[in-house]
Each structure stands twice: as C-alpha cells, then as structure tokens.
Amino acid sequence: MLKDVSVSGGFGDLVAVFRQSEPGERLLPAALAMVCTSVILFLFWLDPQVNTYTYVPQEVIYVENWTNDRTDEEIMQDRWEVQCLKDKLEAERRDAMKELGRMSGMDVEEIEREAEAARKARGEEEVERPAGLQC
C-alpha cells in the first residue's frame, strides 16, 4: 500500500500546480495558510509558559479578643455598642438616600411614612435600648 507513496512526488505535484497558474493566484493563499498554521503552532508552544501561577492559600490567624470570664452584662454592652455603630451608619445612609430623593423630586417624608406603616403592619418592633446606653 505504501509502495506508491512518494514525498518527492508530492512536492513535485505542488511545484507543478504553482507553475500552472498566475503567481499571486496560489502564492497568497499558500502564504496565508502557512502564517495561520505558524501562529497556531506558536500559541501551542506559548500556552504552557503563561498563566503558570499556582494559588497559595493565605494563612488564617484566629484572634481571640475577649477573656472567658466575661459577664453577660459585658457581652450585652459590647453587642449594643456594635448595634449603635450599625445604627449610626444606617442613619447616615438613610440621610443620603433622603437627600438624593429630594434632589430627584420625590416626597421623601411621604415615602418614610408609608415605610413606617408597612413596618408596623408586618409587626416589626423597635427593641428597647438598655438604660444608660450612650450611642
């Protein structure tokens, strides 16, 4: 089966095809085919050399801020301090949204009354703050 196969015969046929036609008619597509093939082979060679960074997970360090002998009152005081900070940030955000609503021409007081009525309808209640809590 392979006795009739000849590499030199194949190259000879290729040269004969190029000689039969106009020079640009076959050379341009052949050049484009060689360039595309070269680019693909170059990308196969380049691929293993890029993006070789391996992820190294960061070390997690646990820090304990409190002692084991804290009382319930101290724990609740710390929680309320954090809640005061959250409330302060939420109030600042709410004020900024109200100002944006006013600049947009909205009736922010009406919207706030509707929101308060909806909260009451859902049964949400404001939790009482401990006496002496300074936010």
Mean pLDDT: 85
Largest sheet: none
Strand content: under 5%
Write the H/E string, N to C: HHHH
Q: Total helix count?
A: 4
User: What's the N-to-C terminus distance?
Assistant: 94 Å
Number of strands: 0
**Quaternary organisation of the protein chains:** single chain
Question: Structural class from helices and strands?
Answer: mainly alpha
How much helical structure, as a percent, in the residues? Answer: 55-70%
Write down the Rg: 39 Å
Quick one: overall form?
elongated
Show unreliable segments: none
Which keywords apply here?
mainly alpha
Task: Describe what you observe in this structure.
This protein has 135 residues and is mainly α. Helix content is 63%, strand content 0%. The chain is built from 4 helices and no strands. The relative contact order is 0.04. The mean pLDDT is 85.
Short description:
The protein is mainly α and 135 residues long. Helix content is 63%, strand content 0%. The relative contact order is 0.04.
Task: Describe the secondary structure blueprint for this structure.
Layout: H1 7-20, H2 23-46, H3 72-103, H4 108-122
